[in-house]
């Protein structure tokens, strides 16, 4: 498994990762995932100003991380790996690549949201210097009608 910068032609494979992972409930995205629309979004992000993406490749794309300008100086992080690629350092390698690039920009912070019961993701973020900044209490209405809280985690770059 290698981490490399995403190319525009990775966009469909990145959207397919989201489609594969969404049924687990670990992501904000829920089934049915509009793969074509999501791929368009990734294609724009990859070519976009101030944004960047990396893929974990076997060489097939089995995971990705995106960083996009959320508010001036703050990069929003999103990532996912298919189940078979997890637990082998790939997530860590993606975060390391993203943070290395973020450190070369004039951004002062990287932030993200994670479900409070996603222990694996929280463990990875804590291990890479993210701290909990807050809780969005019963904030997201899910497709099944339930309300979910999310943790806001962030890593300062300054
Ligand atoms: C969360 C995710 C990106 C982590 O990637 P991964 O490749 O499984 O993680 P890694 O193998 O790189 O582990 C990195 C660190 O995570 C932590 N970690 C891994 N598995 C863990 C677990 N089961 N519980 C707690 N922490 C764990 C450890 O700190 C580990 O550090 P170490 O290498 O020193 O042991 C991946 O599991 C995933 O895509 N999950 C589904 C989608 C998702 O949750 N996305 C994030 C939404 S916010």
UniProtKB/TrEMBL annotation:
Pfam families documented for this protein: Acetyltransf_1 (PF00583)
Coiled coil: none
PROSITE patterns: GNAT (PS51186)
Keywords per UniProt: Acyltransferase, Transferase
Entry EC no(s): 2.3.1.-
GO molecular function list: acyltransferase activity
Organism domain of life: Bacteria
InterPro entries according to UniProt: Acyl_CoA_acyltransferase (IPR016181), GNAT_dom (IPR000182)
Residue ranges occupied by any N-acetyltransferase domain in the UniProt entry: 1-158
Entry protein name: GNAT family N-acetyltransferase
Taxonomic source organism: Actinomycetospora termitidis
Lineage: Bacteria, Bacillati, Actinomycetota, Actinomycetes, Pseudonocardiales
